[in-house]
Design goal:
Elements (H helix, E strand, L loop, with lengths): L1 H12 L22 E9 L3 E8 L8 E8 L5 H15 L9 E7 L2 E8 L6 H4 L7 H20 L2 E2 L8 E5 L2 E4 L6 E2 L6 E3 L13 H6 L1 E3 H16 L8 H9 L7 H9 L12 H10 L10 H12 L1
Antiparallel strand pairs: 1-2, 2-3, 3-5, 4-5, 6-9, 7-8, 10-11
Helix pairs in contact: 4-6, 4-10, 6-9
This protein binds adenosine-5'-diphosphate and magnesium ion.
The site of adenosine-5'-diphosphate has 23 residues, from strand 1, strand 2 and strand 3.
Protein name: Tyrosine-protein kinase
Family: Belongs to the protein kinase superfamily. Tyr protein kinase family.
Organism: Esox lucius
Length: 311
């Protein structure tokens, strides 16, 4: 008896070692609300809100930090399906450069919280303005993003929301892709996904064909990577952010319309070369922003190109 109790306690503290997987009440992926202690908010996007909690089932202060994501508008019917998809997708991904799934917390039979590993340094958007990275360091992060994305594409998922705000920083040498809220599976044989619902889309990160025809593909993620690379090399300076810059180009006051953005891109206007950004790196961005999706590089080839530049 006591041995069993001790084992259970031990396992609750270390969900990674689970000798009792067969017992349903000690499933390491099941988190109980009563042991979750809120510490602070970590951030939020259009649909989700992420908070830092300590999970402390032993209730003795030995718990671990976890990042907990929940939907901002709870109970929103059509969001719920997407929410369950997001959880299923994250659960199926294992890669050094992708945030790790830990489990779920349910209430009244509905999964209300997604539990992930906590990345202490926040998103690139939080991190970069505070730590002015040199070009070599920027390229290290960029290459890691490509590695995570190459794995995602190999699993036939398209991310659809690749941006600095969705890349998380573990430590000064490691970043991971987070936020799979818009990720879609592309069945073998298909080449793109066409969206029907179009709420708060991150249009300034979107490829031209996404804006014009709502066509999302592996190549449209490449375009967004180009914008993310631009963000990294501008240290996520808000004055040079993609929305700020593109609006300045068309001299727009307030919200820019999709029509104007399309017109701008069709005239082959693109984000400029960031200050102190090597020519070869800007060239990579330009390739990612090719009008023709078929001419854009793949993440595999980007990994190699970045490797060459880093040498
Ligand atoms: P949304 O789907 O609403 O955009 P995200 O998953 O992108 O939600 O999370 C919103 C913000 O919360 C991120 O931009 C980041 O700042 C923070 N965040 C998300 N996940 C983590 C994590 N695992 N560790 C630390 N901070 C996180
Ligand atoms: Mg996000």
């Amino acid at each position: 008896r006591t041995v069993l109790r001790e084992l259970t306690e031990l396992q609750m503290k270390n969900p990674d070692i689970s000798p009792l997987e067969s017992l349903p009440d000690t499933d390491p992926n099941v988190f109980y609300k009563r042991y979750l202690k809120k510490i602070r908010d970590l951030g939020e996007g259009n649909f989700g809100k992420v908070m830092l909690y300590v999970y402390d089932p032993a209730n003795d202060g030995t718990g671990e930090c976890v990042a907990v994501k929940s939907l901002k508008h709870e109970g929103g019917g059509h969001h719920h399906e997407g929410w369950m998809k997001e959880i299923e997708i994250l659960k199926s991904l294992y890669h050094t450069n992708i945030v790790k799934y830990k489990g779920c917390c349910s209430e009244l039979g509905q999964v209300v919280q997604l539990i992930m590993e906590y990345l202490p340094l926040g998103s690139l958007r939080d991190y970069l303005p505070k730590h002015r990275l040199g070009v070599a360091h920027c390229l290290l992060f960029a290459q890691q993003i490509c590695q995570g994305m190459d794995y995602l594409h190999y699993k036939r998922y398209i991310h659809r929301d690749l941006a600095a705000r969705n890349v998380l920083v573990e430590n000064k040498c490691l970043v991971k892709i987070g936020d799979f809220g818009l990720t879609k599976y592309i069945p073998e044989g298909d080449v793109y996904y066409r969206v029907r619902e179009d709420g708060d889309s991150p249009v300034f990160w979107y490829a031209i064909e996404c804006l014009k025809e709502s066509k999302f593909s592996f190549s449209s993620d490449i375009w967004s990577f180009g914008v993310t690379l631009y963000e990294i090399l501008t240290h996520c300076d808000p004055r040079q952010s993609p929305p700020a810059f593109l609006q300045m180009m068309e001299n727009v006051q307030g919200q820019m319309t999709m029509m104007l953005l399309i017109k701008l891109l069709e005239k082959h206007n693109r984000l400029p070369c960031p200050r102190d950004c090597p020519h070869e790196v800007h060239l990579l961005m330009r390739q990612c922003w090719d009008f023709d999706p078929a001419r854009r590089p793949s993440f595999k080839s980007l990994i190699e190109s970045i490797e060459e530049i880093r040498k």
